What we know:
Layout: H1 8-12, E1 20-33, E2 36-42, E3 50-54, E4 73-82, E5 90-101, H2 116-120, H3 130-152, E6 156-157, E7 163-164, E8 176-177, E9 204-206, H4 211-221, E10 223-231, E11 244-253, H5 257-278, H6 280-289, H7 294-303, E12 307-310, H8 311-319, H9 337-347, E13 352-358, E14 374-382, E15 386-393, H10 398-407, H11 416-420, E16 429-435, H12 436-444
Parallel strand pairs: 3-5, 6-10, 12-13
Antiparallel strand pairs: 1-2, 1-4, 2-3, 4-5, 7-9, 8-9, 10-11, 11-16, 13-14, 14-15, 15-16
Helix pairs in contact: 3-5, 3-6, 3-12, 5-7
Amino acid sequence: MSGAVARVADLLHRQAAGGVVRVQGWLKTARHGKGVSFFEVSDGSCMAGIQVVAEPALANYETEVLALRTGCAIEAEGELVESPAAGQRFEIRAASVTLIGPAGDDYPLQKKRHSFEFLRTLGHLRMRTNTLGAVMRVRHAASRAIRRFFDERGFLELHTPILSTSDCEGAGSMFRATHFDPASAPRTPDGATDWSRDFFGRPAFLTVSGQLEAEIGALALSRVYSFGPTFRAENSNTSRHLAEFWMVEPEVAFLDLDGDAALAEEFLRAVLRELLERCGDDLRFFDEHIEHGVVAALEHVVTTPFERMTYTDAVAQLERSGRAFEFPVAWGADLQSEHERWLTEEHVKRPVIVTNYPREVKAFYMYLDEDERTVRAMDVLVPRVGELIGGSQREHRRDLLERRMRESGLDPAAYWWYLDLRRHGSVPHAGFGLGLERLLLFATGMANIRDVIPFPRTPGSADF
């Protein structure tokens, strides 16, 4: 065979038929009729496959082509022609069809709807389905859009560590990283594990956030962002929790809370706008088969100015709503998803940025307001999902930061370098965090976060 292998996406978007083409991919369907076989070939480059029509004149028609079934990997060469069938523009009239990899009789992805729960047991195959293939293409486009946004605005990507000795959130739900053999770990005289003899000479963990290190970068390079995996050892099996997920965390020097909120709004609009421009076919699939209204919801966020209100105002509006919420509304309690959705879907009917939360419900590193009741925190809320982005102006005053650490039960000595940053050219700075998987839930309408990441890590599950 001669010529380069063509991507299915490129063939489907051709302006005209004609010419000899060659494709490689997997059979989504295989139909054998009287004197002709029809194969839908997908290489994962787009939602649709391309039909290959094979006739008995092929030398291996009886010996090989008639045995092809769903799941086989093939290579086909032939002429690209206009298709007489409805729903497809072109098809390939095969001059040759070669089996590359056979599929067993028990190939599990047949032409029927499979539950997402079932597909999670087939992590090695599920990306071949229409839905998971579309998720992965949208995920790629979102990652590309995120990096493009920051690159065009002069941010440097900072590779923050995965191994850490700091608990950024102070929540304690961290995976321990050690080289000790659990059966023979060294002990102190009182019988406790002697972590001073571990690899790093102290307890180490998988990171929950790259924020603290991003602050180091911002206070030297002005504008940085980290984008990588983070880990939470929460024993939760809800549709919104993962043990491993991807976070994008920008950090900017000389930025206050208002500037942080403006950056978050601009960022979210830009990323979703690019998804609408680049992922039309995949997003229409989600709108038709997963959740009607997904595309309209994305367009709404892209085109509608965000509302801003303080936490205190939000609580007042919720209390006046007359709604009987499952979680009671009271000043000092964190907002729940049902409160966030009421604010965005019923009260203002657009995205909302809520600011200045009570200090008790936010992390130690957030800038303390003058009343010392609230901190300069913000959450970006969108319809259908609730919180998509959480951020804050960071506390750059050393004495107040140390005080907040102690109030949160943290040992300031363990964060000596973080405090030391406040001694040497400290400036106001701010940033936010966006969970990529939560963004993808919003963009696709998928119901479970395990279905928007290639290999979900949840309690009791680390296969594939």
